[in-house]
Amino acid sequence: MAGPAPVTGPGAPDTSAEVTGTGGPDTPPEVTRTGGPAVGRRTAPVDERVRPTVLVPLAVQHLLVMLAGPISSAFLIARALRLTPEASANLLAALFLLSGIGTAIQSLGPLRIGARMPFVMLPGGAAVALFIQTAQATSPATATGAVLIAAVFLLVAAPLFASLMRFFPTVVLGSMIVVIGLNLIKITAGLLVDTARGPSGTSLALAGGTALAVVLAFRLLPVGWRRFAVMIGIAVGTAAAALLGRLGPVGSGPVLSWPTPLPFGAPTVNLLASVPLLLYAIGAMAEATGQTVLNAGAIGRPLDRRRDIPRTIRGDAVTSLLSGLFGGPLMVTSGENIGIVRLSGVRSRFVTLGTAVLLALLAFVAPVARLINAIPSAVVGGAGMVVFGMITVMGIHMLRAVDLARDSNLMTATLAVLAGVLPIVAPATYQALPPTVAMVLGSGVSTAAVVGVLANLVFRASGKPG
Question: Per-domain residue ranges for the chain?
């Protein structure tokens, strides 16, 4: 049976590094160094410099799983604002570039900006809806101004939010992560239907076949190949789609493209119009908290909440500032790749740095984006369902560390999960409320965070031990 591929560490030039061990993704690869003074020295898995032959396919795997985010966001904004084909292509290129810059910031963490974890960054789902709502109610320039205001708010509020972390015990964070996973599953479920052709058994078969291929690859392949299970599943699904004639059209156009700054003109500052995005930004900080805790657990790194969480939020803020300048929505750290980290067992942040490079290339090489866009959404959705289901299970695993025999913990988790899941299973729940309130409450993660914190405070104030 083939073992995991070797990696190269950041030690002295004459130092070689090799991954050993036979465990699955739950068992971190052990790093053994030979030669020179580096003998016996171990590099944390998150800081391992992975060999290019392993890094490149893993980076592609991360890319394929998260690619639907910028593509779908660009299409939604372009359709809602009736953008020209040229403006739509410009926006897609901008979102690829911004996702790449944000992913690089979170992976490298320069100047205490970014978590130094294997994160990817995407346009926020609810943030896209709020951007469209603001642009339609006012103007695209005002929506751009709202993004810039919310980004500055994130930058200023990051240290304050870190000081409030004592109000987010494990029972609240675990509940939030369960809701994050379920929310991602809900979003991904929309990809299972090929919207270009309408609902069909073929689309469902492609999604199911892709998911099955991911599971079989993870179950049957040697340990060293399991890390590529998602990419193998997508390749199998794409090949099946080609045989069935279900690949999307590959359009023609220029070879090179590049995003244009301020596509909607100079941003318009309107504080009142910015309120919905400012409210969403509070929820985004709560979600970034959950994502940081989840990522730290996946890579096995001890979490310093006062240090790591503000760094994640600052990475979101800086990337969102750039997004506003290129006509994009608020950008957020994404949990979409954390399941990949768990499946592959490779925890290096340099893998997602490789993904950042690929995203930046996509922003400028137009034919590549057109080819990727030809992959049926059902194939991407089938792979995503496996990955995001794993995130939900990781949240459940976190709740195992909580003493749910205590009434206070049980009720806190119950209320938080209920509040977070309600808008997921019944999206029309808050439809009768004012649009801004409905949009905020409709974000399951932020609602779970608020309800969980309040429930925890109520039981703490009552002094009941449970």
Answer: 7-49, 51-396
